[in-house]
């Protein structure tokens, strides 16, 4: 399963905030569980700004 959400900053995701030693201000138990049990890309950046081309690039490896 690949969860892609528009306009989320990585520094606002509670699971990643805890990993950096910061106290989260949101409660997202389901997202936290998915992060713990799955794979989290912490340094992923997009090759382009619009969502459609960025997702196509992620899924195909093409730019």
TrEMBL record:
SUPFAM superfamilies: Alkaline phosphatase-like. Keywords: Hydrolase, Transferase. Residues 2-62 form the Sulfatase N-terminal domain. One of its GO terms (molecular function) is hydrolase activity. It comes from the Bacteria. This is Sulfatase-like hydrolase/transferase. The lineage of its organism: Bacteria, Pseudomonadati, Pseudomonadota, Alphaproteobacteria, Hyphomicrobiales.
């Amino acid at each position: 399963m690949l969860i892609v959400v528009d306009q989320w900053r990585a520094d606002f995701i509670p699971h990643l905030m805890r990993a950096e030693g910061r106290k989260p201000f949101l409660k997202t138990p389901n997202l936290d569980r998915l992060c713990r049990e799955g794979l989290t890309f912490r340094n992923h950046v997009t090759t382009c700004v619009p969502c459609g081309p960025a997702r196509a690039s992620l899924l195909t490896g093409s730019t």
